[in-house]
Amino acid sequence: MKIGLPKEIKVKENRVALTPGGVGTLVRRGHTVTVEHGAGVGSGIADAEYVAAGAVMGTAAEAWAAQMVVKVKEPVEREYGYLRDDLLLFTYLHLAADRALTEALLKAGTTAIAYETVQVEDGSLPLLMPMSEVAGRLSVQAGAYHLQKPVGGRGVLLGGVPGVQAGHVVIVGGGVVGTNAAKMAMGLGAKVTVLDVSHRRLTYLDDVFFGKLTTMMSSEANIRALLPETDLLVGAVLIPGAKAPHLVTRDMLPLMQEGSVIVDVAVDQGGCVETIHATTHDDPTYLVDGVIHYGVANMPGAVPRTSTFALTNQTLPYALLLADHGIKALGRNKALSLGLNTHAGQLTYQGVADALVIDYVETQAVLA
Questions:
Q1: Which parts of the chain have pLDDT scores under 50?
Q2: Could you give the CA distance from residue 61 to residue 48 in angstroms, rounded to a whole number?
Q3: Nearest 5 degrees, angle CA 8-CA 103-CA 120?
Q4: What domains can be seen in the chain, in order of their start residue?
Q5: In the chain, what is the straight-line distance between the N-terminal and C-terminal CA atoms, in Å?
Q6: Is residue 94 annotated as part of the catalytic site, yes or no?
Q7: Angstrom distance (rounded) from CA 31 to CA 320
Q8: Distance between alpha carbon 5 and the CA centroid of its chain, in Å?
Q9: Which member of 98, 196, 264, 268 is catalytic?
Q10: 169-199 pLDDT, tens per residue?
Q11: 37 in active site
């Protein structure tokens, strides 16, 4: 199969979808990989490393002309012209919060498989996990920075100092993002509270952190009670492939202290904070009612070297399946079949259909 690896052009997105090692594995399996010049530079990977791995270097158009294109982030508007009906696209999509891209994929007839909805039998999301780990850890770093007074924050040091209480980090959602945010916050010495709707998950977190964090059931009443004492709120809610519910509503913001910070990692799925909207690394924050909102939708792009290698570790086995078998790979691997979001002009993922109020068809029906 001919595989394309274009350079990411989203603002300050420096990741690349395959390392030279991943490219080499595909080439040894008999596939041709065309890498756009400079695709890996942001992750510290030179063109020469891809050439040594057996890649063909080319332009963006040449990379996009391949049978399968492997990316990190969803196509932006400038890339919509590359979409076509004989293209297999394998990347993060987050369509539930992006009507324009969904309509572009459907109009082009592109077969699009989303990393974030590939799901194994235990319900986990193996291709979302590595970036969730990165984003969870970054959320606390970003929040700690924006709590500093020179950048508009309350002037709170999350770890405190002897004789002064630590800052309070409240994490809404105890999944992969929430767990990694808790690790970082506790490492800094902050007081940490995690809310989740699953008692089993809260029990797990209480066990693995040896009771050193506070766990609470996620409810409107509990969130409202915590907001007045929250220095950093981390939104870490995920419903696979669907729009995130608004658990922190507009009317709750006045409960928070001026200069406190919200980092909503769920922003690429619409956000679990009603007042959040997507921002960029160039302009990451804005104020609502005196509360700093951080809504960067590609947080792991800030640490591309780490993120690129972590992502390829997880995506490569699935990319190999698709390269070897094309769309027939979906029939061989149930987890991969759950990643299909669009095919032949039809939407195939219910969570996206519900969020955008668009008709959809079951994956098996489409493939048949």
A1: none
A2: 20
A3: 70
A4: 2-118+304-367 (3.40.50.720), 129-302 (3.40.50.720)
A5: 22
A6: yes
A7: 9
A8: 19
A9: 268
A10: 999 999 999 999 999 999 999 999 999 999 9
A11: no
